[in-house]
Amino acid sequence: xxxxNEPLFHCVLREIRSWPKEYANGVVxxxxxxxxxxxxxxxxxREVGRVLGFETWALHIHHGWSPLKAIVEFRDQAVDLVExxxxxxxILFRTNSPRVASQWADKGLLERPPLxxxxxLRAYRxxxxxxxxxxxxxxxxxxxxxxxDLVETQILRLIRGTSHxxxxxxxRFQNGVARPLLGVSRESIEALARRMSIPFLDDxxxxxxxxxxxxxxxxxxxxxxxxxxxxxxxxxxSLDTLSRHCESDFALPxxxxxxxxxxxxxxxxxAVFLRQQGFTLFTGGQLKEIxxxxxxxxxxxxxxxxxxxxxxxxxVLVRHxxxxxx
Length: 326
Description:
Elements: H1 7-17, E1 27-31, H2 36-52, E2 55-60, H3 69-89, E3 92-95, H4 118-132, E4 140-142, H5 147-160, H6 164-168, E5 173-174, E6 177-178, H7 186-195, H8 204-208, H9 212-227, H10 231-249, H11 255-258, H12 263-276, H13 284-295, E7 307-311, E8 314-319, E9 322-325
Parallel strand pairs: 1-2, 1-4, 2-3, 4-6
Antiparallel strand pairs: 5-6, 7-8, 8-9
Helix pairs in contact: 1-2, 2-7, 5-9, 5-10, 12-13
């Protein structure tokens, strides 16, 4: 297979070449579910690695038992598919699945109650991915998210209510996490998989359409594209423009002004501010905890200098009425 003639190969090559130099440590880890996006991404990163001289690792996460037989079968088949592909292509393979005997297996995975909801699945997946790359903790972690995934995320956040930052949704590169296909359509990825005979599995959860994201993916976006051809591409471009404009214009006000905002506005601004400082792994509950603790330092005399609050994995310093993260 000659990937060097493929536009997506050069897209991924450009993205990886743009990564900060400190991440050029010889290993790139790709999160591989067995779906078409991640299987294509794995193949492209491996081919780019041959050109740039880094080793590609595949990390697969099994999400455990499910009461739905089709989901269980998909998860088991996905482990086998990714392992076979990695063996064929001489890619180092790691998984938390007890089906594969290794030190990385989550041995109690299949006995625990099933994970429920997109947030719980994502949290478990990220935790296990970090575990699988423990010995190369500074290696870049690559996801196969693409343009359509980004649009789905942005639409979901608009429906549920979001801030300036929520429109951005995902980053091409941030804190060692990369998404080199974020500007590529799902259609282009699927076409490459067909041309290059890259095997993959369809997650039955996407076809069920029970959660809102699956419904948007399976029904709403296709209906929009059918009704107005080219609408998805235009929508993606508009959302991207808005997200970049909002993010670049944002600045956290001084604390005396910030404290006069509504509770939801304070939480929204604080989330954007923390992300700008490089902190991304926090929850809504932790944001509320930070606001609560900071409120105890507010007084009619204003904010004192040098006040330090420690919590949620952060050290917050108040200096001249402004908030800093140290």
